Structure prediction request, 485 residues.
Amino acid sequence: MNPLKKLFQQTAIYGLATVLPRMLNFLLLPLYTGILVTAGYGEVSVIFAWIAIFNVFLAYGMETAFFRFYNKNPDQEKVVSTSLISILATTLLFVSMALFFQTKMASAADIDLRFVRYAIAIIALDAFVIIPFAWLRANEKPMNYAVIKIANVAINLGLNLFFLVVLPGMLENNPDSICAWMYRPDFEISYIFISNLIASGVTFLLMLPLYLKSNYVFDSALWKRMMNYAWPVLLAGVAYTINEVFDKILLERLLPEDVAKSETGMYAACYKLGMFMTLFATAFRMGIEPFFFSHAETENPQKAYAQITNYFVVLGSIILLAIVVFADVLKVLFIDEDYWEAMSVVPLVLLGSFFLGIYHNLSVWYKVTDKTRYGAFISIVGAIITIGINYAFIPKIGYMASAIATLLAYGTMMVLSYYLGRSHYPVPYNFRKILFYLGISIMFSALSFYVFDRNLYIGSVLLLVFLALVYKLENDILRKVFLKR
Prediction:
């Protein structure tokens, strides 16, 4: 089969595994914004931001290192067992230290102690499945990956609906119900984290077979080589997570106390609409990352890398324009009216996420050449921009500063990766085509959102014009990719 066709088929499955669960999570957005006040949703967003930051620390680049060494090491079982032991040891160490310092952590982060305990358990369970999920991807088992990911979110969604909607309704009609022991008033935030915790626990149980069949041989020399590869990925991951979630933490800290949680909640809710682009970029990355490593030693892999980036830009440009055009429709479907004030951030967040997706495609050069330190450098530059703009401008323009910081940070990372990659690992990107589609999509998006004030009819015409343009210019090439055997 055409390797690019196989890549896109696997990416479609990973896309299902990524997009469908996140789409189910979108069903939680109107639930949360409908039940919680803006301040309550702001608090939930801040806690999940801290969970995301600790998730990166507990992964410490081992997932990417696993791909690299699993593909080039003849003893793949040793790579698996060494990685599992490493993650197990560091996660158990984290749990021990976190429980010991839990009270101080809760005080420092200004978070209720019981929420900190839920977060510790969720973070640990998520860390335990890092290598099993990487093993599924490395062995090209996208369907197994998809089923487990979807099961996780289906459980999470089901429990949220039960605890936040079904259970209160049951007890309102029948206060003496047998389920009364499960219900506590004003316990909504705890129910959200309990649902997440149970879903993570079930996911760990489904991934347990890899732990049970491992021979647990720890190769210290291999581990040192993996860590040497992984530590820059860790730095890049921390910097990326700062770019992605730290703005919610800074908003809560830097805005006046009387509006901090409310403004954070509105921003976090509207930021979620930018997740449509993130879903696409993540699904694409899940498919291409194993492809990058497995084709690194083939003849002229740079040509395939360039083609993949071209396709990503074409598809991403369509998604950018489509979400901007239908932003007002999406806000009605997913966000309570109390949160609409922050809709102005949506185009900026979308474009920033698109730049991040392009950056991930361009980052192939430092991953296949084992120069991950450059990835760390690029991400740290992005994190400095994020922190600097947020600190300087949140007190002046509020959450718009966070949206602008997202756009500038990811745009800078994209440009830096392109220019550094030209000298270290030249890839023949069709720069003219990339700029053409990106420019037209941004121009049409700006016209639709700002000039024509989100007029759905004019926006739809602009989207149809863009789709016709893509079809005319790319039809023959796309048919070759998807239909060629």
Remarks:
- Residues 220-254 form the longest helix (35 residues).
- Residues 56 and 237 are 6 Å apart (CA to CA).
- DSSP finds 20 helices and no strands in the chain.
- The radius of gyration is 23 Å.
